[in-house]
Amino acid sequence: MSRQYQRIGERISAEIAQGDLTTGDRLPTEREYAERFGVSRTVVREAFIMLELAGRVNVRKGSGTYVCDPNSAALTNPAPAGDAPDSEDIGPFELLNARQVVESAIAACAAELITKPEIRRLQQLLDDERRGLTDVARGRSQHVEADAADRAFHLGIAEATQNTLLYEMATRLWDQRRRSPMWQHLHARILDFSYRNDWLADHDAILRQLRKRDSQAAQQAMWIHLENVKTTLFALSDTDDPRFDGYLYQQARAR
Ligand SMILES: [Zn+2]
């Protein structure tokens, strides 16, 4: 089974190679490609990221995605080590879909078996997360710590299923994200972290249901949380949106 974004990326790449699009041309929007190929915009977004990592296209502030000259692109914007396109890489939205399915089921299972010490530990993690976000807001730290708190909370729930295989599956999904050049590339586009406060409220809601041992409500709360994560990451990385700040994006790339 080949990845959907790779098939779409290869079709766009073939159009460029056949000369339908040449250096400096603006690519059709994500919406146009999504309609033409009959796929969701998230798949087209992933295909664009793949082509960007391969140096075939680049994104310009508030104006779209352009075909680049492979030679000059390599000179002015060399791909950082380890950032090469990887045929094994899972698309960021594909990964989030998998997390939504698996982690919702995990939350349902955890609600039935979670122990009191585990509930206390999750509460502690949320308190730490809240503190971490305050530090970021005051410029005292980077978002990295909030990421670690997010991971610890989700994996803490997986642990509460008392099922080692479910815990390993959740861990694998999170490790995948850390290893993925596409995920890092998508994340580099996003420099506004105010949405993290919304996610913290989601986490509070999940813990509330776990505490009540309401399996169905816990499942639903996790599903909604990951739906919010998908929607936010999709909106904040939208290069078709004229409000998208390509300047910040370039800076993030240069780091
Ligand atoms: Zn979360």
From TrEMBL:
InterPro entries: GntR_C, TF_FadR/GntR_C, Tscrpt_reg_HTH_GntR, WH-like_DNA-bd_sf, WH_DNA-bd_sf. Keywords: DNA-binding, Transcription, Transcription regulation. SUPFAM superfamilies: GntR ligand-binding domain-like (SSF48008), Winged helix' DNA-binding domain (SSF46785). Residues 2-70 form the HTH gntR-type domain. Transmembrane segments: none annotated. PANTHER family: TRANSCRIPTIONAL REGULATOR, GNTR FAMILY (PTHR43537), UXU OPERON TRANSCRIPTIONAL REGULATOR (PTHR43537:SF5). This is FCD domain-containing protein. It comes from Salinisphaera aquimarina.
